[in-house]
Amino acid sequence: MDYPRFIVDCMLGHIAKKLRIMGFDTEFWLDAGDDFLINKSMDEQKLLVTRDVGLYLKLSKSGRNGLLLPNDDEVENLVFILKSCDIKHIDPVPNVNTRCTICNGTLTKLDKTMATDLIPEKVYKRISTIYKCSKCSKIYWDGTHVENINILIDNINNLLVQ
Domain map of the chain by residue range? Predict the structure, then answer.
């Protein structure tokens, strides 16, 4: 499947993080202006996602498509984005496309023995899988946060079929 790629405006960091976890290439900057976001979305052929009506109107005038999110509800907005891109299902995380929540880099699986100095000992003892960001080297592992994200994904998947 060809996954859509996104640029998300500065007010939607929580959405950017969730899209990255789900496996979508999602760019996000805290200090980027409208023109930068529009030009970047055009140059990189990424879909611009915003709650800013002014930015959306500017984007539309430039002849570029984007998504204006309907409200502040995170789940509804994620479902709106995914339905707009004709995504019918999200795989549980981590999946082969899961990206770094910090920098959007791709994650690679590490052999657990290679990570003894990278994670707390109590975590090392209870987990089996470790991932490392190819860009910023952040370390990830399956913890309760993954369970919570997968509950969110189950909820989203149920809404995608409605």
Answer: 1-162
